[in-house]
Specification:
Structural class: alpha+beta
Helix content: 40-55%
Distance between the termini: 21 Å
Order of helices and strands: HHHEEHHEEEHEEEH
Radius of gyration: 21 Å
């Protein structure tokens, strides 16, 4: 803490981070131990966060992240999209295929940014807002692969014809970005993904991750 920071705000943000890291919520006592402060302080922090719907407490008294966080989260997509655009443009022009940034939205993959190449005669039409199950398509499968962290994973995922007949995709997960789970990839009309594309989407995903840190 420095003279310019607020101790109370810092504690409130730490409460939100602790609650975001658990699926079953935390009690006042548990939060008190984790924060190193007495229960009275925790009660005041929770009461304030509850007023803004950022925290809710169940019948058993366990605190959980509130629905107000979702309203804040809706504003994240435009910021993420803006940060990703330079890398996506470079990827689309380099590969000559439609590039996209996809984020997790519940059990689905949601395309939040799409860039089409400017010089190709034809390419796959892929729109921001497009959704598909996480277990179908390169974008979602790359995210699932990152969760499992299988030894020997090349760092990218290739698929063919899973979302659109005749189209294949390549995607690599975003790595090391706190609070953001997603992937960067391309979709193209081809029988097989060219060898260099896998490594190129890994590079683009790394560029996006660095822009978001």
């Amino acid at each position: 803490m420095t003279a310019e920071t607020s101790q109370t705000l810092d504690r409130g943000l730490r409460v939100l981070k602790l609650l975001a890291d658990t699926d079953h919520g935390l009690t006042v006592t548990e939060l008190s131990h984790k924060l190193g402060v007495n229960r009275t302080v925790v009660y005041r922090l929770l009461a304030t966060l509850e007023q803004h719907a950022l925290v809710r407490r169940d019948l058993g008294g366990r605190a959980r992240v509130g629905l107000g966080v979702l309203r804040l989260g809706r504003q994240v997509h435009p910021l993420v999209r803006e940060a990703a655009m330079p890398a996506l443009r470079s990827l689309a022009e380099d590969i000559g295929a439609t590039a996209h940034l996809t984020l997790v939205d519940g059990a689905e993959a949601l395309a939040v940014a799409v860039v089409e190449p400017s010089w190709t005669d034809y390419h796959v039409a892929y729109r921001a807002g497009f959704r598909h199950p996480l277990d179908r398509g390169a974008a979602g499968k790359a995210i699932l692969a990152a969760r499992q962290k299988t030894p020997g994973d090349p760092g990218y995922t290739l698929t063919h014809g899973e979302l659109e007949t005749g189209a294949c995709g390549a995607a690599a997960p975003l790595v090391g970005v706190t609070g953001v789970e997603g992937s960067v990839g391309v979709v193209m009309l081809a029988d097989v993904v060219p060898e260099r594309v896998g490594k190129r989407v890994v590079e683009a995903a790394r560029e996006v991750a660095e822009a978001l840190r």
